[in-house]
Amino acid sequence: MIQDTIAAISTAVGEGGIAVIRVSGPEAIAESAKCFRSKSNIVTADSHTVHYGHIVDPISGEVVEEILLTIMRGPRSFTSEDVVELSTHGGVVAVKRVLELLLRSGDVRIAEPGEFTKRAFLNGRIDLTQAEAVIDLIRSKSDRAFSVAMKQAEGMLSKKVKALRHNLIELLAHIEVNIDYPEHDVASMTSDYIRERCGEACAEIDRLLKTASEGKILREGIMTAIVGRPNVGKSSLLNALVQENKAIVTDIPGTTRDVIEEYVTLGGIPLRLLDTAGIRETADVVERIGVERSRSALEEADLILFVLNVNEELHPDDRLLMEQFRNRPVVVLLNKTDLPVVMNTSEVEAIFSPEQIVRLSVLHEQGLETLEDVIKRMFFGGELESADLTYVSNVRHITLLGHARQSLVDAMEATDIGIPIDIVQIDVRTAWEQLGELIGDSVSDSLIDQIFSQFCLGK
C-alpha cells in the first residue's frame, strides 16, 4: 500500500494564465492545509469542492500567493487517493514558491515522472493500456491521433483483450477438467473445441493487428523527407503545408543549409516533415554538411516527397535521385506548373507509376489536395478507418499480441499432430499470460518503471 504523499507542477513551465500543482497521497489535504488560509476548513471540506484563499508561509506569516484549491477525495480522483490541486498565477516564480512551501515539511516529496498515472494504475483505477494512452494523448499530433488515444484511455482496447482472456480461461478450464477426468473425455471433441476457440482468438488478434501500421502512423506520424535539387521549391512546399513561413525562400540555390523539421496534419494524417538541403555536389563547407544531413534523413524517411522543377530540363543530379528512389515509398512532385513546362516528363513517367506523380504549383497552392489523396492511398488504402475502430499503435502491444497469436497457433498445430492435451495447455496458458502482460495483470516492476519514466513530471 502506498503510504507517502507526492507533489509536482502539472502544467508546462513558463508564463500563462494559471499554473497547477497537484498533490496526491494520504496526507495531501492535511499538508496543503498547513500553508493554505481561507474562510473554509479544507480538512473537513467535501470532495470535489473549490476553495478560494491564500498560500501563507507558516513560519514568517508572509502571503506568498492567491490561489484556488480543489479537493478530490479518494477513490473519486485520478490516482484513487486524496488529491489536492492548487491553481496559482501562471508565473515561474509564483508556482515555484508554492511548491517549495509544500515540500518544506518533509512529509511531501517531489513526484517522479509519471508517478500520478502510475499510482492510478497501481491502485487499480486504470490498466496498463489506459495508462500508456495518457502519454499518447499528450503527444498527439492530430485530431484523429487524439481520438484514437482517447478511445484507448477509455478502455476500448482493454475490453477486447479482457474478452480474449476470458475466452481463453474458459478453454483452460475445459482442458483442466479433461485432464482430471480423462474417463469422461472424448478426445476428438476436445481437440475440435481447442481448434475452434484458439482459431476464434487468433481471428480477433488478427483484426487488432490489422490496424497496427495505421495506428503507428497516427501515433508517431509519417517521417516525410522533402527532397530535390536546390531551388526547386522544397522550402516553399514546407511553408505551404505548414501554412507558415518556417523556411527561408529565395532564388539563391543552397539557401537551406540544414534539415528543418515540422509537424503538419494533412487530411487527418500527421506528417513529420523534414525540409532538407538541396542535394548536389558543392564546394561550400557548410552547405556540404547540410547535404550530408539530408542524405541521413533520407535513410530514415518513411515517405519521400521528391520535388522537380518542370520549368527546366532534367539535371544529371535529378536522374541520380530518380534511380535512388526507384524502390522507395516516394511521391514525385512536378512543381511550378504555373510556368511554361520545359521538362520532358517521359523519363520520370518511365520510372514512377502515374499514382506516384503529382503535378502542382506550390506558389499558387494548386495540387496539394491531390498530394493528400496520394498519401492516403499509399498508407491507408485510400481512406482512414472509422474513428470508432480500435487502433493498436504501441510497439509493446503489437509485440505481445503477435506473441500471443503465435502461442495459439502452436496450440492448434500441437493438437493436429496429437500432442498430449496437458502439453497443449501450456501454449494456451502462455497466450493468456501474454495478453495479461499487455493490460498489466502480469508485468514486472522494471517494465512498469520503464513505461512510466517516459511521462512528464506532473503526470
UniProtKB/TrEMBL annotation:
Cofactor(s) essential for the protein: K(+)
Q: Where, by residue number, does Mg(2+) bind?
A: S235, T256
Q: Does the keyword Membrane apply?
A: no
Q: Does the keyword Metal-binding apply?
A: yes
Q: Which GO terms describe its molecular function?
A: hydrolase activity
Q: For K(+), which residues are the binding ones?
A: N231, T250, I252, T255
Primary site of residence: cytoplasm
Q: Which UniProt keywords apply?
A: Cytoplasm, GTP-binding, Hydrolase, Magnesium, Metal-binding, Nucleotide-binding, Potassium, tRNA processing
State its Enzyme Commission number(s): 3.6.-.-
Q: Where does GTP bind?
A: 231-236, 250-256, 275-278
Q: How is the cofactor bound?
A: Binds 1 potassium ion per subunit.
Q: Which residues form the TrmE-type G domain?
A: 221-380
- Domain of life of the source: Bacteria
PANTHER family, sorted: TRNA MODIFICATION GTPASE GTPBP3 (PTHR42714), TRNA MODIFICATION GTPASE GTPBP3, MITOCHONDRIAL (PTHR42714:SF2)
Role noted for this protein: Exhibits a very high intrinsic GTPase hydrolysis rate. Involved in the addition of a carboxymethylaminomethyl (cmnm) group at the wobble position (U34) of certain tRNAs, forming tRNA-cmnm(5)s(2)U34.
Family recorded in the similarity comment: Belongs to the TRAFAC class TrmE-Era-EngA-EngB-Septin-like GTPase superfamily. TrmE GTPase family.
Name-wise, this protein is tRNA modification GTPase MnmE
Q: Which organism is it from?
A: Paenibacillus lignilyticus
Q: Its encoding gene is what?
A: mnmE
